[in-house]
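so my prof wants the structure for this chain in the tokens format not the other one, which i didnt know existed until like an hour ago. anyway here's the sequence
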Amino acid sequence: MQVPSLVQLQLEDRQAVLEGLVRIVTYLGPQEALDCAISLQQPLLARTQAILTNGSSTAAQGGPAAKQLLQHLAQELQLMAVLIKGMEMPGPSAAVAVQPAMKLLEAAWPALTAVAEAPVCQRDADVVQALCEVYKVSSGHLFCAGCGVSKGLLFGACCAGPAVDILASLISLHQEGGAN
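here's what i got, hopefully its the right format
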């Protein structure tokens, strides 16, 4: 089975376009920035969900088609990390009524959890690395969001190097925040 390309642009080009759009969006007012950020995230989440839903049997079978699907999934996750990182508003949280990065993380959480808990995703180093990058850029929000990091990613991934780094960062942030 040949897997059609989900997007025609290379990942680096997609990242550059997304970074440019994010820079523009950050100049908008808080509510407009949030609305635009969510609009930018929707295609990423839709493609991620489509891969998880429609590609799970292909990915489980292995082979070139599975590798291509997992590569597309890793790319969508990398783009989510770019978007969340770019929408982090500087300054005290009181200066921004609604932190766009937090809202993006909340919207993405079900998809991120599904990826983290899928055994086929846990075995793919590129997907694990991309998922860890999303967690890494979101780490300042994970404890305040009450999200809790997926045990499936942190303890089930066979390529645990990136996950261990994220876990260490989260523990450090949690301790700095005064929580036990």
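also thought this was worth mentioning. The chain has nine helices and no strands.
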